[in-house]
Amino acid sequence: MTRMTQPVIGEDGLARCPWAAGDPVNMAYHDEEWGMPVEGEAAHLERLTLEAFQSGLSWLTILNKRPAFREVFAGFDADTVASYDVHDIERLMAETRIVRNRRKIEAAVANARATVALRERGGLVDLLWSFRPAESPAPRGTSEQVASTVESTALSKALKEAGFAHVGPTTMHALMQAVGIIDDHLVGCHRRGCASLPR
Question: Any stretches that span the bilayer, and where are they (predicted)?
């Protein structure tokens, strides 16, 4: 029999996805951001970049370092990051407050350049949202959640063709969850439905 982890009831009486229970940073992110649409190119590029940096690490690690990421990547302004050169990459590799992975840092710069280039074809935001499925998943437990989908695989392919790096199907599924392209909050979670808010 497949084990299904249901929403967890917190001390405040609210039901949450299990990953949000316990740590206050995770809980705040779950309650205030995860699954909610964001506005603008920089906000979408930020989520794409942070999801790429998260690969192989805990999301809590990324959340705790997010203020530093925002600082060193100029608020994820695509034009600014796109102008970073080899000296900037070395500067970022010496920055102890972020994840110092050369491939991920180089990917972040490449992705900013690709984001700038995409403006001629509608932009990053429209491209990401064009892969929103007709129906959002409605998982009743964590055993019904998946790591990637047909849509996240197609999005990954489209982004790679546009010059993006470190945007595999699993990472893009996490991005789609994060920005509300899909609603992967468990049925019964008090944040279920937040993805239906207008972007």
Answer: none
Count of domains in the chain? Answer: 1
- Per-residue pLDDT at 199 exceeds 70: no
pLDDT at residue 33, as a whole number: 96
pLDDT at 196: 62
Which domain CATH number covers 128? 1.10.340.30
In angstroms, the CA 52 to CA 105 distance is 10
Residue 80's alpha-carbon distances to 2, 127, 128, in angstroms, are 48, 21, 21
Residue 185, annotated as binding a ligand: yes
Q: Is 30 annotated as a binding residue?
A: yes
Residues 61-114: tens digit of each pLDDT: 999 999 999 999 999 999 999 999 999 999 999 999 999 999 999 999 999 999
Domain of 125 in residue numbering reads as 37-190
Count of C-beta atoms within a 10 Å radius of residue 39: 9
Task: Find out whether 173 is annotated in a ligand binding site.
Answer: no
Distance of CA 183 to the CA centre of its chain: 13
